[in-house]
Amino acid sequence: MVLYILIVCSNILLIVVICMNRSLHEPMYLFLCSLFVNELFGSAGLFPFLLVQILSDIHTISASLCFLQIFCLHCYAVVEFFNLAVMSYDRYLAICYPLQYKTHMTTKKNVMFIALAWLYPFLSIFVLISLSAPLQLCGKTINKVYCDNYSIVKLACYDTTVNNVYGVIYTIITIFGLLTLIFYSYIMILKVCFTGSKQTRQKAVSTCSPHLASLINYSLGVCFEVFQSRFDMNSVPILLRIFLSLHFFTCQPLLNPVLYGLNLTKIRMICKRLIFSEK
Fold this sequence. Notes:
The chain is 81% helix and 0% strand. The protein is mainly alpha-helical. The protein starts with a helix and ends with a helix.
């Protein structure tokens, strides 16, 4: 409960700071705002369900609520990846083409990137759930603390080739496309850092460090999820399995506001003025 309150308060604080200060109405901060909104969305897909089960000591969930949770958590994961990819491209343009940055990152493009980061996951996950919902299940037990699509598909009584093919194609297209954008952006940033001035290197370090930390934490969370879903984890202690299950949906929403709130000077200074204004 305390963790959920911290996540909600920290992300809402930074969303309000960005929205209320015109000096932060720049592409990087707008993408950050989208990221923080997604942290609230993902947390809302996990914690209320989890808290109800803990407080009521009931470990069952209806099919409709299970699929709702699958939709929220899967969308959260993909929107998060999209936002991080778009932010890496934004940093690439800001560092490698500072004079042309405003020309490349217009308001229209910002809106287009943010809309794509949300609409593509929502539509693709909707199709994924539309394929899974009609499945007849031969079991009722999911060995995780929340619902996920692969666990439902594994319980199906008959052939799930269509689900598997769609899942593989969707995953490959999404991961390959976004990883290509991220790797290209950082390769070009590194190239400029090695050949550019000290000021360019300082700018790259100050703005890319929180993004890289967030990206690494996200990647670790995804790896944990893949191991949990695809491999037999019965030999792993139950507490460690629960931690690995919850890491992705708890650490990322709390880590991002801390990383960006502390590392980005503009946000840090405005937050200080807000918190300590009465003193």
